[in-house]
Write a structure and sequence with these properties.
alpha/beta; five-stranded mixed sheet; 13 helices; globular
């Protein structure tokens, strides 16, 4: 008889549940959240496992990769889909979550998530570290401005180079504020140095990645946009059509239709928010900066005249997702203008 398993992954231990084809619980246990422990546990049960499900999370990709390599039929499940399915459960525990995942695997009512390759995860980790350093640097500068403002000292408009001299000038003669400013400016200098170092690493990664260099031939697409998109797509062949990339990153409108009600809302904003943000920024550059003309910009400007600039930027971001995916799949560079149709 076929069996189906669900794993609710936690940091130290994971709840495992196995059900048969009729939905009856066959095994339940707590297993250490380590690939070797989970693989050994399933091997010791002597059951024919049709599918094993894990909810996507911080540890799930690591566990999924090792279990798949061991020959287990393991699937990553979309978190949003799993949470929606479990909303009817009045009591939430790890054991019940494992049971629910096992039943989803049995019924086939799940949406699998792509498990990213190790290189793609490394790129995403570097980009996340860069964003974290950038955010902490901004928070530190704004916090120092807020402290000085409480004493009537206004930093005003500055550049990265003039920020520190301006702060030192303002706090001169005030011993307490001088000590605070010295400590925070020293921390700011360290953060800025590390941010510059990791940005050099990001640029080096883009130079070494042939796919990123190919995408950067597109107007408005720079190092960050190219690396973010390449790491998120990972395997272009996992999309049956380039048109599916826009909905995958939440760049298509929501739709609600029931009876006489038919409503089209704003974009869904599901999927990777970082990719969506990068695509929107690229679209903003194309529409608001004097980049080289192309059919892409001409099309977006026509949308802007009909529906406004904001909707045009979203539409162009969606179009960029389609174009960039096609470039990855076909291994081609950006073509600014379509060739004229041949005469009949």
């Amino acid at each position: 008889m076929k069996h189906y398993a669900g794993i609710d992954v936690s940091l130290e231990s994971s709840s495992v549940c196995v059900v048969d084809a009729e939905g009856r619980i066959v095994r339940e246990d707590k297993v250490a959240s380590e690939p070797e422990a989970l693989i050994a546990w399933f091997a010791s049960q002597g059951l024919e496992l049709e599918r094993i499900g894990l909810e996507a999370g911080p540890l799930s990709q690591w566990l999924h990769a090792a279990m798949a390599k061991a020959g287990l039929a393991v699937e990553l499940l979309e978190t949003r889909h799993v949470r929606t399915a479990f909303k009817t459960m009045p009591v939430k525990t790890d054991k019940k979550d494992a049971r629910g995942i096992a039943q989803l695997m049995r019924l086939g009512w799940f949406r699998p998530v792509h498990c990213k390759s190790a290189p793609a995860q490394e790129v995403r980790a570097v980009l996340a570290a860069r964003k974290l350093l950038q955010g902490k640097l901004h928070d530190l500068e704004m916090s120092l401005r807020g402290i000085l403002r409480g004493f009537g000292l206004k930093v005003g408009a500055t550049t990265p180079r003039t920020y520190a001299p301006r702060v030192r000038t303002l706090v001169e003669g005030h011993a307490t504020l001088e000590a605070i400013a010295a400590a925070l400016l020293k921390a700011r200098e360290v953060l800025a140095d590390e941010l510059r170092a990791i940005e050099r690493r990001v640029r080096a990664m883009a130079r070494e990645d042939e796919r990123a260099r190919r995408l950067m031939t597109t107007p408005g697409v720079g190092v960050l946009v190219a690396l973010t998109f390449v790491a998120a797509v990972d395997d272009p062949e996992r999309f049956r059509s380039s048109r599916a990339v826009g909905p995958h990153f939440g760049l298509t409108p929501r739709k609600y239709q029931s009876g006489e009600t038919d409503y089209t809302g704003r974009i869904s904003k599901i999927g990777d928010a970082g990719v969506r943000s990068m695509l929107y920024e690229a679209a903003n550059v194309i529409l608001t900066h004097p980049v080289r003309g192309s059919d892409l910009k001409t099309w977006a400007l026509a949308v802007a005249r009909r529906a406004g600039m904001r909707k045009a930027k979203v539409a162009l971001a969606r179009k960029l997702a389609v174009v960039l995916h096609r470039m990855l799949r076909d291994q081609t560079t950006f073509v600014a203008h379509r060739s004229a149709p041949m005469a009949a």
